Amino acid sequence: MNETELKEMIELEDFAHFRADLVEISPESFTLDELKEILGDMIRSKVAMEDDMRESFAALGEVEQTRLLDMLGESGYKDRDWWCRMLLDGPRHREFPTI
């Protein structure tokens, strides 16, 4: 994914989250089809970003991968095992985001 595509994906995710916030405020203002579209946009953008992360991670050498996994595990967001599952386990391209 190039920089322009990444920017577009981030904008799509931001817009989907904005719309999801509006749904929380006024759920009756949205049709079922609109709700499905919002959820679909959120899933597609997250999956695309994760796929890109896995592609970039795969391009690193073993030492760089180990260091990055250690750093991510120490970040406090998720533990190292979660990052291993997200970046290494399973196919690089997935239909749903890592939970």
Describe the structure.
- With 99 residues, the protein is mostly helical.
- The chain has one domain.
- Helix content is 72%, strand content 0%.
- It contains 4 helices and no strands.
- The chain is elongated and about 50 Å long.
What is the strand and helix layout of this fold?
Layout: H1 3-25, H2 32-58, H3 62-74, H4 80-87
Helix pairs in contact: 1-2, 3-4
State the secondary-structure class: mainly alpha
Please tell me what the overall shape is.
elongated
Let me know the average pLDDT: 89
Number of strands: 0
Distance between the termini: 22 Å
Radius of gyration from the alpha-carbon trace, in angstroms: 16 Å
Total number of helices:
4
Main beta-sheet annotation: none
Stretches where pLDDT falls below 50 for ≥5 residues? Answer: none
Strand % is: under 5%
Number of domains: 1
Helix-strand topology string: HHHH
Helix content range of the residues, please? over 70%
Short description:
By secondary structure, the chain is an all-alpha fold. The protein has one domain.
